Amino acid sequence: MSTIFRTIHNAKTRSFIETWSGIRKALQHKPFHPQSGQHQQFLQNLVHQLEQVKSLVDVREELELIQKQLNG
């Protein structure tokens, strides 16, 4: 494996790990006011983040969980 491939691969992997870590942290968030506009926007942003990584990892469960919380 070439050094350039390892460097690129490692950068992409690190980027994904950082992104996924932020998503997992957001999914663990327990809101005080789940129906507030602010929390609903937070959930919409989280859906967007999940949409960005769904080609890399199966996020169907996460999206389903969020959909239940959106205006629900």
Structure in a nutshell:
The protein is mainly α and 72 residues long. It has three helices and no strands.
Structural features, described:
The protein has helices at residues 3-27, 37-53, 60-69. With 72 residues, the chain is mainly α. It has one domain.
Class inferred from helices and paired strands: mainly alpha
How far apart the termini lie comes to 50 Å
Give the beta-strand count. 0
Let me know the average pLDDT. 89
Beta content: under 5%
Shape: elongated
Q: How is the main sheet built?
A: none
Radius of gyration: 15 Å
The helicity comes to over 70%
Number of helical segments with 4 or more residues = 3
Please, how many domains? 1
Order of helices and strands: HHH
Low-confidence stretches: none
Secondary structure: elements and pairs:
Elements: H1 3-27, H2 37-53, H3 60-69
Helix pairs in contact: 1-2, 2-3
Keywords, separated by commas or semicolons:
mainly alpha, 72 residues, single chain
